[in-house]
Design a protein that fits this description.
The chain is of the alpha/beta class and about 325 residues long. Among the domains are: about 45 residues, lambda repressor-like DNA-binding domains (434 Repressor (Amino-terminal Domain)), CATH 1.10.260.40; about 130 residues, Rossmann fold (3-Layer(aba) Sandwich), CATH 3.40.50. The chain has eleven helices and twelve strands. The strands form two sheets. The protein has a six-stranded parallel β-sheet with strand order 2-1-3-4-5-11. It has a six-stranded mixed β-sheet with strand order 7-6-8-9-10-12, with helices on both faces. β8, α10 and β9 form a beta-alpha-beta unit. The longest helix is centred in the first third of the chain and has 16 residues.
Length: about 325
């Protein structure tokens, strides 16, 4: 692409626009670039497989029900718009972290939905130089007002989950959340702290643990929290997988959920209704978030300006069987 741009006397971004069928290129320039592309034998795999073209969906990992919900929502929305979708997983495969950008241009993809934990400044810059629009789903950091993104009200979810436990009489409420630098982790933790503060309860920093939103580290954190003499009577987990890790730790220590320990998760993944006891959790509209991101991306591909570049969808508490009033065995422990 750099060679073709140099020969045509245009920018790499202009070559990318021609490749992607963008309309904001003059006919004269388009013809020159297309002739050079033909001379180089350049083809666009997949461009004719769907009327609208291809869109990339880039995610950290596929072995997670969270990913399945996002992919399902994005694919349904893109199919309705006449677009095909290619999924790339980059987690724990550092060579792919660089390769997905190369694949995006070689496939002639028109845009990208990014559900990855980190988008580097270099990757963001390259996407801009190539003229490829993208939308982030649940961004891990504040990328600024000009970066299109779709997320959820994580702060409100954390506040609502903690307030539910307080209303059940719990006073020693632990939180197991995600990495400290992640935007969602900070928002859910801030909601937890705000609910405690509103109830006149002090935040005990020894009851807060940071994991990586997966099962095993959460299990270890829960073991430490529940094996202490002044153990918490409730745990708010930053996602449903962390809640399952807490279930496992409680079973190992002979604690019953919810009789001895109340647990709240976050996401409301399908298995939350299948585990025993069924999991009280904060519903995050994952499929709808991805669908909104897909529709926003289609607008950008078509040269349209979305009404807003920052969308937050509402979360809601789903009360099931994993939460109950505080056990009478702990009437005075940690009371306000």
């Amino acid at each position: 692409m750099a060679d073709i741009a140099a020969q045509a006397g245009v920018s790499i971004s202009t070559v990318s626009k021609v490749l992607h069928g963008r309309s904001d290129v003059s006919a004269k320039t388009r013809g020159k670039v297309q002739r050079l592309l033909g001379q180089h034998g350049y083809t666009l795999p997949g461009r004719h497989e769907q009327p609208g073209g291809l869109v990339e969906f880039v995610i950290n990992e596929l072995d997670n029900p969270w990913a399945v919900e996002l992919i399902r929502g994005a694919e349904d929305a893109l199919q309705a718009e006449g677009f095909g979708m290619v999924v790339s997983a980059v987690h724990r495969r550092s060579n792919l972290a660089r390769r997905w950008l190369d694949n995006l241009t070689s496939r002639g993809s028109l845009g990208a939905i990014l559900a990855i934990s980190e988008l580097s400044a270099e990757q963001e810059r390259e996407l801009g130089q190539l003229g490829i629009p993208f939308v982030e789903v649940q961004p891990s950091a504040d990328q600024g007002p000009d970066v299109p993104s779709v997320g959820s009200t994580s702060w409100n979810g954390g506040f609502t989950a903690t307030r539910h436990l307080i209303e059940l009489g719990h006073r020693r409420i632990a939180m197991i959340t995600g990495p400290a630098h992640r935007l969602t982790s900070r928002a859910r933790l801030d909601g937890y702290r705000a609910a405690l503060d509103q109830a006149g309860l002090e935040v005990d920093p020894t009851l807060i643990r940071h994991g990586d939103y997966s099962h095993e580290p959460s299990y270890q954190h829960a073991l430490e929290l529940l094996d202490r003499p002044d153990r918490p009577t409730a745990v708010f987990a930053g996602n449903d997988l962390q809640a399952l890790g807490t279930y496992r730790a409680a079973r190992r220590l002979g604690l019953r959920v919810p009789e001895d320990l109340s647990v709240v998760g976050f996401d409301d993944l399908p298995f939350a209704q299948w585990v025993a006891p069924t999991l009280t959790t904060v519903r995050q509209p994952l499929a709808n978030m991805a669908a909104v991101a897909a529709r926003m991306l289609v607008q950008l591909i078509n040269g349209q300006e979305p009404e807003t570049l920052r969308v937050e969808l509402a979360t809601s508490l789903v009360v099931r069987a994993s939460t109950a009033p505080v056990s009478p065995h702990f009437p005075d422990r940690g009371q306000a």
